[in-house]
């Protein structure tokens, strides 16, 4: 387990910016979860995994492209997505990133470089080498790399290995980021694979790998930065396993009756936002007051986002058959 | 009789068959988490959570079926079957014939599909016709809790690979279900849900109820529609469909899946071949578009066959005055 | 014009398009070994042997297509597509619509199928109709070397995912092919191979020639058959089919694939909906059985539509005297 | 690389019996290849890989079950299949093991325990865990285990990893035997995977693995025997990689124009039959005369097999739709 050596070297504004992003993600997700009772379609939230998204995105550039999956809100928000357009998408309205056609499960935002999101577990892994191949063959922005986010469950799908092998064999500029949140829908990781399986599997493919505390945004950033700059310099793939925890159910609403309370408590102790706050408070970079202000601004942002989404019209019936073909 | 949902009927059927025959096992991503009563009754050896690896889960079921077990696998949503195609199509569907009849594959695959949950086109994709097109498989898509129970039990006792699709919109719908642990609905037998004389509406799954509603409203306009619920898409109950069309002279086929090469096309072709002389009007299809199912609630609503669409098709048919060429010739 | 085989026409088309547009790349298990001239002309970066991993090869093509390349992938035999279903159906076919039109997928998938090589049901399985049923895809299955060239070139220039199926029995068949490097056969346009007035035979791939033979023999009996080669199964050229049936009043649909929910069913349903009033006789299907294709040479022979089957269907049709109900009513 | 320590410990009759089996396989395959010109359907021959089939089968019992693939003749013959019935199957005649319906590519012979053969690369791997699960749950003969044969190419398919993981997780009595013959149809192994990839991949799954000289029947037998008895005792899966070479083309006829002549020559030097003969001649267990006699008897057996197959009728057209359903 790679634990961050970070102490005070980071510029203040970056850490605070990360905290703000993580708070935004959490607030957005909790808002959506609370909206369940009001008939909003179910979603897979990334509560507890905010440091993974924020830490990796901070290591990436605008020219880089990202693939993600069903649990994508954190990735999108960390990449700068508008909460209003995200909410509109979840609600199926025309101002959503996909015009309401996607709903929450496969949101792409090409303008942000978040492309080809698939909710088929492993779908993102199947397409990522192709995006990286296009990059390598001169189709992306110069110097760009490709990052694919996926879960520990996806690592059980054969496509995981096929993608790793192809990326290694074809020397693709591709960063594999496995957010190991211990859960695969309603099944615990330890019921489907040996302990430490993911990193052992990845290592078997002969690429450089790292396992990182996914609840420490600085650790994630540091490891991702190393991997990204290595990929930029030699165009070879890298693999990161971010150890984290899915704090809420698989898909809202979910009573988590099947979740071991001790394990959950253990991970709640290690909550990434709580830890970052503590660190920043300790270091004097943050005060309780500035934290409250930050939260209040975010709450207002989410309220505005909801108002935006509510005001967005439903798509026209003609959309049913628009965009079937290019 | 007992009131229960489709979901409950499915698990009652499974539990009864697991009780009856200890070769029946259940596998799926989360089945042992969500169906605790099955785990309690039959243990973790027979009720297995699986890794996220649909290809090997389906393949394992095929191998186990050929080797004396009778697996039931829960593949969750129909589009996830895309990972299980080799196991289901190339192995379960073909290896009996390829081997000259050496193996049997008593294997049931469960999958959900259909509109109603706003989950979008990678969870909601009605794939039943694609499987009807494949050799060696049987395909069920029932509409009532009782049929789910009776057909699933028959499927588990059948010695062939059977796919049972659950229309998402029906999962929590309620109905009376016989308590009988030997309550079997035969495969390949359609149900006539309403008797009529003017037009035959053939459907299955969620849209059967829509046809029944349409029939009620058509009756108010003096048009008596017969409503057939196929239940089992393969083997197809040709007899019931043909008998009805021979009586009514008109056929409207209704389903949520895309029309192109779908079940409605098959029914239309069947009737064109075998009951052409009975037809008083063009066979009509009321189906989903040749497009990806949307997530947006509003689009989901307008994308599926409605009472209005069905009534429109029937009224058009009844109004048709053009004489077919066969008339002009004679 | 130049004489060449279907196989040569395919690789000529590919070479010409790779020459014309350096975003076109080719990938497949052994393509760089077997098509050395492509490797020589375009290098190993653009002509890539792949691991045996159809799922990621197809997925890579999808990802590359959305990112500015124009991949052509050789998946060898159609049943191997079972591993590529997620990439082709859930990604290439759906992600354009799901994303609200953000992506285009200019991607061509090649696969072989059909009887003639005694390779059995895990190499020979005609799956075209299953893909026609899926949204967002286009499906080609030509019958002549010239069409293979012209359609493949159009497919490579198209901005959508296209599957091109090569009937094994045609791979080494010869024909005249235009030398023109801009020779394009438009997608969605059927070819009328023979003009006739009494019956329309619609087919594609290898069985077009069988229909032409049957038409020749029918002509000797005074029955003039029109023969339509669909070439492109999706989008379907409804206009050409309907115009012909409106003229002849009779339709026989012929293909080697299973009939259930196949292209013949779709054509029958199309005509029943849109040209019913022209029909003088039941639409007939002459198709492969709902069964696994056999390897045994003898079974392969008897399992595919023959001149005799087709003639039999036509002669039955022409003989039909039963009046349709529409007549009795008037 | 595990090289056999075998010197003289094996009983004479076993070695001779193995030689005879290997000769039978080779003669059968070369006969089929020669028949190409007479219009016999193409086949994938196992010439050069005879020691793999014979060595592993010798370690198995009658109660064990076997899955194989497109390159199955060696496995079937080593398991005691009748050359006549095999040939009849390849020719599509009713006396074939599958009534002529299979042809050469997916021959199963349940009576020999060779079941569920698939010519979809990886198909056998998908089904093998299920056969082993049935065995474990009491459906096979007591004490039986399951063996699945597949190639180095199949190891590139994701299903390879899915099967290994499931077998490990569910503790299935399953022996994975990868015949690494260096070729994947028209592509060399080194073009699709790193060197030593297969064993590294397998090791990543945390089961016991061995790499063996697949052209040394004694080495194969020894390693397989260890693995089989281990599986019988603890019901855990094992993995063997047998390093060998595909001496002929992928699918007859095949001019092998794409094959490196030096590599081929290198492996022809290490031909498994030649090596076994040399060893047995050296050890005095075999004379040139007895070898000639053995070969003559085999030639006669193949001639008889061909006569049997030729005499076997074509299947009736009704078979087209027989056995669609049970
Ligand atoms: C092929 C496939 N199988 C099953 C599902 C249903 N499903 C959606 S998310 C999920 C769990 C995925 O686990 P993991 O990859 O660890 O991601 P996480 O949800 O934990 O972020 C499952 C089973 C799916 N969407 N696709
Ligand atoms: C899924 C799939 N892809 C491709 C093929 C075509 N094919 C048949 S055998 C073969 C090579 C397999 O290589 P390997 O697994 O090493 O086995 P070998 O032929 O060397 O014994 C290929 C590509 C196939 N039958 N199935
Ligand atoms: Mg997870
Ligand atoms: Mg090989």
Automatic annotation (TrEMBL), chains A, D:
**SUPFAM superfamilies membership:** Thiamin diphosphate-binding fold (THDP-binding) (SSF52518)
What keywords is this UniProt entry annotated with?
A: Oxidoreductase, Thiamine pyrophosphate
Q: Which CDD domains match?
A: TPP_E1_PDC_ADC_BCADC (cd02000)
Q: Which cofactor does it need?
A: thiamine diphosphate
Record bears the keyword Oxidoreductase? yes
Q: Name one GO biological process term.
A: pyruvate decarboxylation to acetyl-CoA
Which GO terms fall under molecular function for this chain's record? Answer: pyruvate dehydrogenase (acetyl-transferring) activity
Task: Give the protein's recorded name.
Answer: Thiamine pyrophosphate-dependent dehydrogenase E1 component subunit alpha
What single Pfam family name could you report for this chain, choosing any that match? E1_dh
The Dehydrogenase E1 component domain extends over 22-316
From TrEMBL, chains B, C:
* UniProt KW Cell inner membrane keyword: no
Keyword annotations of the record: Oxidoreductase, Thiamine pyrophosphate
- Does the keyword section mention Iron-sulfur? no
Q: Which cofactor does it need?
A: thiamine diphosphate
Q: Which domain of life is it from?
A: Bacteria
Sequence ranges assigned to domain Transketolase-like pyrimidine-binding in this UniProt record: 4-173
InterPro entries reported in the protein's UniProt record:
THDP-binding, Transketo_C/PFOR_II, Transketolase-like_Pyr-bd, Transketolase_C
According to the UniProt entry, its GO molecular function terms are: oxidoreductase activity
Recorded protein name is Branched-chain alpha-keto acid dehydrogenase E1 component beta chain
């Amino acid at each position: 387990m790679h634990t961050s050596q970070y102490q005070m070297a980071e510029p203040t504004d970056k850490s605070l910016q990360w905290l703000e992003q993580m708070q935004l993600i959490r607030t957005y997700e909790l808002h959506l979860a609370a909206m369940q009772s009001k008939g909003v379609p179910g979603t897979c939230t990334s509560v507890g995994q905010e440091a993974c998204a924020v830490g990796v995105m901070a290591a990436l550039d605008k020219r880089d492209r990202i693939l993600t999956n069903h649990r994508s809100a954190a990735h999108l928000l960390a990449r700068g997505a508008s909460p209003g357009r995200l909410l509109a998408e979840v609600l199926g309205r025309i101002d959503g990133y996909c015009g309401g056609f996607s709903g929450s499960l496969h949101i792409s935002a090409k303008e942000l470089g978040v492309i080809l999101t698939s909710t088929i577990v492993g779908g993102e892994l199947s397409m990522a080498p192709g995006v990286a191949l296009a990059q390598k063959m001169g189709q992306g922005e110069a110097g760009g790399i490709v990052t694919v986010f996926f879960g520990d469950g996806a690592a059980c799908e054969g496509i995981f290995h096929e993608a790793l092998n192809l990326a290694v064999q074809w020397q693709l500029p591709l960063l594999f980021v496995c957010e190991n949140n211990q859960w695969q829908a309603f099944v615990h990781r330890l019921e489907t694979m040996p302990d430490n399986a993911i990193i052992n599997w990845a290592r078997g493919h002969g690429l450089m790998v790292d396992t990182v505390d996914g609840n420490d945004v600085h650790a994630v950033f540091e490891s991702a930065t190393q991997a990204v700059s290595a990929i930029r310099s030699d165009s070879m793939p890298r693999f990161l396993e971010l150890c984290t925890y899915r704090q809420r159910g698989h898909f809202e609403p979910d009573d988590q009756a099947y979740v071991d309370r001790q394990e959950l408590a253990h991970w709640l102790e290690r909550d990434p936002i709580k830890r970052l706050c503590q660190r920043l408070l300790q270091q004097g970079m943050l005060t309780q007051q500035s934290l409250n202000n930050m939260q209040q601004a975010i709450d207002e942002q989410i309220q505005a986002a909801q108002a935006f989404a509510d005001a967005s019209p439903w798509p026209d019936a003609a959309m049913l058959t628009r965009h079937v073909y290019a | 009789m007992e009131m229960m949902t489709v979901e409950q009927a499915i698990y009652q059927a499974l539990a009864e068959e697991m009780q009856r025959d200890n070769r029946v096992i259940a596998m799926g991503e989360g089945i042992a988490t969500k169906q605790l009563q099955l785990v309690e009754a039959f243990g973790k050896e027979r009720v297995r959570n699986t890794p996220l690896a649909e290809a090997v889960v389906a393949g394992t079921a095929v191998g186990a079926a050929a080797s004396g077990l009778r697996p039931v696998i829960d593949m969750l949503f129909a589009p996830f079957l895309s990972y299980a195609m080799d196991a289901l199509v190339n192995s379960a569907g073909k290896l009996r014939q390829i081997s000259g009849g050496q193996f049997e594959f008593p294997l049931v695959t469960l999958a959900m599909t259909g509109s109603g949950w706003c989950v979008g086109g990678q969870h909601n994709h009605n794939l039943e016709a694609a499987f009807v097109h494949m050799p060696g498989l049987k395909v069920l898509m029932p509409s009532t809790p009782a049929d789910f129970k009776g057909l699933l039990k028959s499927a588990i006792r059948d010695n062939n690979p059977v796919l049972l699709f659950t229309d998402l919109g029906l999962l929590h719908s309620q109905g009376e279900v016989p308590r009988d642990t030997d309550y079997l609905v035969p495969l390949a037998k359609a149900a006539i849900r309403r008797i009529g004389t003017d037009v035959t509406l053939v459907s299955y799954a969620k849209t059967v109820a829509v046809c029944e509603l349409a029939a009620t409203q058509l009756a108010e306009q003096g048009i008596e529609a017969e409503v057939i619920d196929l239940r089992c898409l393969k083997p197809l109950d040709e007899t019931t469909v043909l008998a009805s069309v021979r009586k009514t002279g008109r056929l409207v086929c209704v389903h949520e899946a895309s029309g192109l090469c779908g079940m409605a096309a098959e029914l239309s072709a069947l009737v064109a071949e075998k009951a052409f002389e009975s037809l008083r009007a063009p066979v009509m299809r009321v189906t989903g578009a040749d497009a990806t199912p949307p997530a947006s609630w509003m689009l989901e609503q307008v994308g599926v066959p409605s009472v209005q669409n069905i009534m429109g098709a029937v009224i058009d048919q009844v109004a048709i005055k053009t004489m077919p060429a066969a008339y002009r010739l004679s």
